[in-house]
């Protein structure tokens, strides 16, 4: 399987995130991508290519222009205030506060952020746009007739909504790739999110649409991040009613429960008649993940890949979460190798 990779991911290296009531070193680090790339090479998964530049147009097909312009200028405006440390919001535009977009960068940082764990740094814009190009280059390959591709996307994307960042995500790589597949003639595209955390951003982007089916298997938002989206009763709205499936599972759920939810999701994708599949591949479902609470073992990721291959669809994998850095390479490549073995 082809891997698309850009070294520009290294430019996103936040110093700290606010988690569990204290500032901790970021879990989303460049070493994650290094380990995945090393495993791709060590396991001889296939060629590794650099992305083609696609510019801002595909991003603007999914994200709000004001939000994009904010990300483009945030660091420069933040550093003009004399600040050389990561840009993190100090409050949120919460219920019954004015919804108007603030003028000042500090206010915009609060308006366009979902949490305090997604630091904007000097290299964020370059890293995030390169990550989109990685995903889009993978989509180009599917459009060109290839069966599958792995977009080694970092920073990840599935928490990024139309107009906000969060969960270490700035641009929604998977959603932008799905939109590109739609724009290049694929009539029905499914996005399956197997990350531990609900893909609130991807749901937000496609919630009112029937041409993109969104499905997510994740830790129950009653106890797990992102808390405020990802419930089973969220089924889409308007045109999109019936084209959104959430499978929230209790933290600590066993592997067989997880695979049962996967089989239910795969059944919906087959019923939808998808012409292509985008997988938000987070491996923080791993039993040893430091911030998540499912129990998949490294061998289970082979099974995941095999189950996905059974759909017989052109498939683009976009890397999302996974913070057990030692095993991340094997966990990710097991999915891809499991897929290949059944293709
Ligand atoms: N900082 C709070 C937890 C962010 C979760 C990030 C993730 O793995 N999303 O899939
Ligand atoms: Zn996650």
UniProtKB/TrEMBL annotation:
<keyword id="KW-0378">Hydrolase</keyword>
<dbReference type="Pfam" id="PF00850">
    <property type="entry name" value="Hist_deacetyl"/>
</dbReference>
<dbReference type="InterPro" id="IPR023696">
    <property type="entry name" value="Ureohydrolase_dom_sf"/>
</dbReference>
<dbReference type="InterPro" id="IPR000286">
    <property type="entry name" value="HDACs"/>
</dbReference>
<dbReference type="InterPro" id="IPR023801">
    <property type="entry name" value="His_deacetylse_dom"/>
</dbReference>
<comment type="similarity">
    <text>Belongs to the histone deacetylase family.</text>
</comment>
<keyword id="KW-0479">Metal-binding</keyword>
<protein>
    <submittedName>
        <fullName>Histone deacetylase family protein</fullName>
    </submittedName>
</protein>
<feature type="domain" description="Histone deacetylase">
    <location>
        <begin position="28"/>
        <end position="336"/>
    </location>
</feature>
<dbReference type="InterPro" id="IPR037138">
    <property type="entry name" value="His_deacetylse_dom_sf"/>
</dbReference>
<keyword id="KW-0862">Zinc</keyword>
């Amino acid at each position: 399987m082809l891997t698309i990779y850009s070294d520009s991911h290294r430019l996103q290296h936040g110093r700290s995130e606010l988690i569990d009531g204290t500032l901790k070193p970021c879990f989303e680090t460049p070493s994650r991508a290094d380990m995945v790339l090393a495993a791709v090479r060590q396991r001889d998964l296939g060629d590794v290519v650099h992305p083609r530049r696609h510019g801002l147009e595909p991003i603007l097909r999914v994200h709000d222009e004001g939000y994009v312009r904010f990300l483009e200028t945030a660091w420069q405006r933040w550093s003009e205030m004399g600040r050389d440390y990561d840009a993190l919001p100090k409050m949120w535009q919460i219920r019954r506060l004015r919804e108007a977009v603030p003028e000042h960068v500090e206010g915009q940082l609060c308006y366009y952020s979902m949490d305090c764990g997604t630091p904007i740094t000097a290299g964020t814009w370059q890293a995030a746009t390169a990550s989109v190009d990685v995903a889009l280059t993978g989509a180009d390959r599917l459009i060109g007739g290839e069966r599958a591709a792995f977009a080694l996307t970092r920073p990840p994307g599935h928490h990024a909504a139309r107009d906000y960042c969060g969960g270490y995500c700035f641009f929604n790589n998977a959603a932008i790739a799905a939109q590109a597949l739609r724009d290049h003639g694929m009539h029905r595209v499914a996005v399956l999110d197997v990350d531990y955390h609900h893909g609130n951003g991807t749901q937000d982007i496609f919630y009112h649409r029937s041409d993109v089916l969104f499905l997510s298997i994740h830790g129950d938002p009653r106890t797990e991040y992102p808390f405020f989206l990802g419930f089973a009763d969220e089924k889409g709205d308007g045109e999109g009613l019936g084209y959104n499936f959430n499978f929230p599972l209790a933290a600590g759920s066993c592997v067989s429960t997880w695979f049962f939810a996967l089989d239910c999701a795969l059944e919906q994708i087959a019923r939808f008649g998808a012409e292509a599949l985008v997988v938000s591949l987070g491996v923080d479902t791993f039993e040893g993940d430091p911030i998540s609470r499912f129990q998949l073992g490294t061998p289970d990721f082979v099974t995941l890949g095999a189950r996905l291959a059974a759909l017989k669809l052109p498939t683009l994998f976009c890397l999302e979460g996974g913070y057990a850095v030692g095993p991340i390479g094997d966990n990710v490549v097991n999915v891809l190798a499991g897929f290949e073995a059944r293709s």
